[in-house]
Amino acid sequence: MRSRSNSGVRLDGYARLVQQTILRHQDAVTGLLPASADHRDAWVRDNVYSILAVWGLGLAYRKNADRDEDKAKAYELEQSVVKLMRGLLQCMMRQVDKVEAFKYSQSTKDCLHAKYNTHTCATVVGDHEWGHLQMDATSLYLLMLAQMTASGLHIIHSLDEVNFIQNLVFYIEAAYKTADFGIWERGDKTNQGITELNASSVGMAKAALEALDELDLFGAKGGPQSVIRVLSDEVQHCQSILHSMLPRASSSKEVDASVLSVISYPAFAVEDSELVEITKQEIITKLQGRYGCCRFLRDGYRTPKEDPSRSYYEPAELKLFENIECEWPLFWAYLIIDGVFSGNMEQVEEYREALEGILIKGKNGMRLMPELYSVPPDKVDEEYRNPHTVDRIPMGKLPLMWGQSLYILGCLMAEGFLAPGEIDPLNRRFATVPKPDVVVQVCILAETEGIKAVLRKEGIDVETVADVYPIRVQPARILSHIYARLGRNKQMSLTGRPYRHMGVLGTSKLYNIRKNIFTFTPQFIDQQQFYLALDNKMIVEMLRTDLSYLCSRWRMTGQPTITFPISHTMLDETGNNVHPTVLATLRKLQDGYFGGARIQTGKLSEFLTTSCRTHLSFMDPGPEGKVFAKSYELSIGSFEELNAEEWLHGLQIAEDADTYDEVAQYLDHLLQRTVPQSNLPPTAQRGGLNRFRAAVHTTRDLMSLASKAKDLHVQDVGMYVPTKIFQASQQSVKLLSSPDQQDVDGKSHTLHAEMNLPRDKDGNVDCKALVDQLRICPTLQEQADILYMLHILKGPDWHTGLDSEPGPTVKELLTELYVRVGNTRQWALIRYISGILKKKVEALDEACTALLSHQKHLTVGLPPEPREKTISAPIPYEELVRLIDEASEKNLSVSILTQEIMVYLAMYIRTDPVLFAEMFRIRIGLIIQVMATELAHSLHCSAGEATENLMNLSPSDMKSLLYHIISGKEFGVEKSVRSVDSSVTAAISICEVGAVGATKPERAGIVRLKSEIKQQLEKRRQSLTGNKPLSLQSTEADLTSSLSAGHSELLGKGSFSSMLEGQSSKDSRQGQWQRRRRLDGALNRVPMGFYQQVWKVLQKCHGLSVEGFVLPSSTTREMTPGEMKFAVHVESVLNRVSQPEYRQLLVETILVLTMLVDMEVHTIGNIIAVEKILHIANDLFYEEQKALGADDHMLERDPATGICCLLYDSAPSGRFGTMTYLSKSVAIYVYDFLPADGCSMQ
Question: Phosphorylase b kinase regulatory subunit alpha/beta C-terminal domain: from which residue to which, for each copy (predicted)?
Fold first, then answer.
């Protein structure tokens, strides 16, 4: 008989250890492992970690088999693993109803349970009796299921199970926005059952999603139906959120040792090697002790100071746990494995040696890992005084099966029995390896032959949508509907993936569906209901954003391919040339570089071999040969929310029966549900893409309206507007030039109050007479005003009786007007009508969630509370819009602008998160206010004009202005005039200011209009007695004044416009520092490390008072300096100050106070009144300037705060700088507490 090799003997030793510490506890029926002899429940996370050693040992035996017995041993071990994984699968499949509900609710009451009965797989505690929502546990199961399947284990046995796993993918793909209880089951560290977003959960979910993508769960014996599919955009959401959080673990935990599992084995979820190292060092520096690592700072679990009779902590109690947190050897096992994977053998030996000293020796010399080491109760005071000096005692489970398993796995790897690739067959360990450069393939398509000819004239050769056949082009939302079928299973009542917008990573692949190749246009092309897509510059901006995002986030095999269609709306007003912005973009794309991305343009057919392609096998025919079985047919009701026009080409051009196959019929089925049925007769002009048709599916009687009209006016955007209702522009010119309809100031809003509000005999507004006035309205603005009046008085569904009975409804007429205004690009009016119609902002809730997921709280409305509303958790779309409306005080334009700004902020945080550094709360109301004041400053105009100009900015200019505000870059404003709707209006555009102080167009000699045209327009302006379009403020004010007395004014006192009024005069001069403070104050921007310094100040006083609101020193007993929760708490006190520049001076005052922290001073007072210090500084400044000869006008004080306006505009440094006076005032304020020789005043 062959003698046993030394390696075989060593393996047998580990096999005995595994048997005694892990496998002997495995349930014979379910395969589950209890947590310990005392805790008989089976935790999902503990079970998966505990079985890893068994899996690793099985792999080691398979590789190092000396004898047949070893091969048998390998099989036995592997089947133990399979049994446990299937046992957990059974537990979860019994809760399939929760999986289905959670996909839509992300609620703690709908989540899978965290632990089950070891013997029956049943639940053991109620839904609300435990912190069940632990995304990392479910994600860890899926990650290891993928790794084990890839290693050759067969765990999944049926297609029903495949569908369940696919739905678990949908369950965890929202982890980036789901607050859970985390790996320690406690949520917020106060242990009061408060969920929070955890880096450990987001990272594990990201790893699981990547591991399962395109994985065949049947292994080598599988087929297309057993492949799991993951949407790449969800993975990248997790990646960006994780990157923004680390090294912070959550809002209440500035560092957590559990993140080791995310930055290293098993997740390897972070791609930035520098961030991995920073996070690891943060954990080692702050949490490591002599017996392992603490879980997190001020962790009270099993400490002598914890009250075991209470399941929660008092906030101030957390300070008691500082420096006596229990230390867990478990984390050294993670660091051993991390050292093996990173090739750092010195680290491996260091931690193996450290572990040898603290493991407990059991019978037969077996080394057991205790759960934790705690400070003995009688040594607590000594440990407080000298941390990490007291000898600790082991407590808790012995062994901690999870830690024991990782220890054995680390030893097997360290001794060479296992190679890293064997327990990581999916190669996750290479996450930090630099990826090759991405070249984005862009295929430009023309909507029609006419557009193709226009582009050819410009030297750009493209194909039409019809030319690319048999490749089919579809809008993004069709792909969303196709993916909604993924994972459906009638037996288990699983409905598949919830309908969500498709991200750019998803639309940049080519798809094989039933032997047909499909390409999908980006989501922004599909913007049906909101006005952003009316702006060609905005479309270009969104394309630039998507290209940049693709370059940085693309990780798949093959290159990304964007299909970019050119439609009629991208031509200029004549329809004979491409819009200059679009043309410039097309030329840049052809040059090969755009928006920081490398580009290759070409035909779709040329990209087939180099593109990333995915086969959507779930769309293949079932047993009956149909695309979908009857049980999976889509109900009409499921598409009722899609109230916008879709466009489609493939089904119309393939008219022969051979090509019009089942896929086309299925997509046609989808489109019949997503295309509103038009009540207008077809016309000779085909609309093609018709991307911007407004939602007319609710119009019931437009047919009668059209039949009465002798003529149809075909709009470029595809909406048919009867010209009999809205008079031609020539008539408007005559009416506008009539002097009796204009006042000398050029404001025509008095017309409404005097002429357009007819009264009946009872004194009420005569609505029928208003309808009559609608027929002869000279301007679009007046038509909108009248329709708004009718909307308020009669409601949107009131039949006007216009030209017929019952006639079109108010809503139908507003919709028609919206399209007409869209053609004229009067943005203020577009926003106004959008607000009246409550047009749904595409992906508003997703934009809000994106900002919140990056740990930014949002506020809408202007300060103070309760008008300013805070959003700190994702909320449904309807509730979000209601909150914004309420905060905007029913001001339609401000409400819609708030939603628009939220979308732009989400774009920037996705592509340029650095802009939001040290900003924990984004105050959208103040940002809008600052945008208007900046315009007032740049244009030297009044507050009213600034508001009007802001509302008239195009979406692209609005986004550009927002960027310059939050980035702090200087910008210039170009102002020209243009003729719109029979009047002359100012055209404002935002430009970057170059190094020489001029805007780029000025330096290049490019101006918007030729000087001759400007002169002619100026003459025309004078002939029209200075006409301007109605400002929104005046129009709305006059409209509302004529309504019932109970209706509040839309732009009343203290609202958006009036808050500007007091500032416009100050803005007329060059107040650079005042502007800078206003911007920083509005953006809540503070110096780096500010909140940590505030924490130190609070330790030396009883609290800081800001305008009567106190930040107590007890806060430091609850929160640590680096906690985001602490920063948000400080912000909430500072945000009580409504004036941004005053708030910023208070921040500077606190900053000076922090300089005292490093002095040898025990205390600096009781409650420090920060504003009092500022006012002392202000008085010092005033007296000194007065003595130097400044007059009262120069030293004018702000009536709201009493601060000299000149102080607001003083630089921080220098002889007359704010810091000079603040330092003196701090010294005066805290003089009694300073040491005699502590400091001297300069």
Answer: 1063-1188
Strand partners, 1106: 1109
Phi, psi of 517 (to 5 degrees): -100, 130
Distance of CA 538 to the CA centre of its chain: 19
Q: What is the pLDDT of residues 340-363, one digit of tens each?
A: 999 999 999 999 999 999 999 988
- Listed in sequence order, the DSSP H helices in 875-923 are 877-887, 892-911
Residue 974 β-bridge partners: 989
DSSP 448-462: SHHHHHHHHHTT---
**Helix, strand, coil in percent for the chain, rounding step 5:** 50, 10, 40
The whole-angstrom separation of Cα 1092 and Cα 380 is: 27
Give the span between the Cα atoms of 953 and 532, in whole angstroms: 12
- Distance between CA 1015 and CA 1019 in Å, rounded? 6
Neighbours of 541 (CB within 10 A): 23
Give the number of C-alpha atoms closer than 13 A to the C-alpha of residue 661, restricted to the C-beta side. Answer: 14
Distance CA 887, CA 885 (A): 6
Token pair of 138, please? 């479910």
CB-CB contact of 790 with 805 (8 Å): no
More confident residue, 193 or 89: 89
- Give residue for tokens 């007769």: 681
CB 931: neighbour CB atoms within 10 A?
Answer: 23
What is the spatial distance between Cα 309 and Cα 774, in angstroms, rounded to a whole number? 74
Tokens at 252, concatenated: 């209440």
Pick from 10, 5, 2: nearest CA to 418: 10
Q: What are phi and psi of 990, to 5 degrees?
A: -100, 130
Q: Coil, strand, or helix at residue 516? A: strand
227-247 tens-digit pLDDT: 999 999 999 999 999 998 999
Task: From 900, 891, 993, 1007, select the one nearest 955 (Cα to Cα).
Answer: 900
**How far apart are the C-alpha atoms of 956 and 961, rounded to whole Å?**
9
For residue 825 the two structure tokens come to 């690009």
**What tokens does 756 get?**
């357009």
* β 593-594/597-601 pair status: antiparallel
The token duo for 982 is 């029979």
Q: What CA–CA distance (Å, rounded) separates 793 from 1042?
A: 11
Does residue 746 sit in helix, strand or coil?
coil
- Place 1013 in a pLDDT band, splitting at 50, 70 and 90: very low
Structure tokens at 220: 């080598």
Cα 309 from chain centre: 40
Q: How many angstroms separate the most distant Cα atoms in the chain?
A: 118
3-state SS of 567-614 is: CHHHECCCCCCECHHHHHHHHHHHHCEECCEEEEECCHHHHCCCECEE
**924-939 helix and 943-951 helix, angle to the nearest 10 degrees:** 110
Burial class, 441, CB count within 10 angstroms (exposed 0-12 / middle 13-18 / buried 19+): buried
- Let me know how long the chain is: 1242
User: Is the distance from CB of 1102 to CB of 1113 less than 8 angstroms?
Assistant: yes
Say if CB 182 and CB 192 are below 8 A apart: no
Tokens 């043309």 label which residue? 583
* pLDDT tens-place string over residues 593-643: 998 889 999 999 999 999 999 998 888 765 534 444 333 343 333 333 333
Those residues whose C-beta lies under 8 Å from the C-beta of residue 96, and which sit 6 or more positions away, are 164, 167, 492, 493, 494
CA-to-CA distance for 580 and 1008, rounded, in angstroms? 11
Cα separation, 1069 vs 490, whole angstroms: 70
DSSP class of 988: E
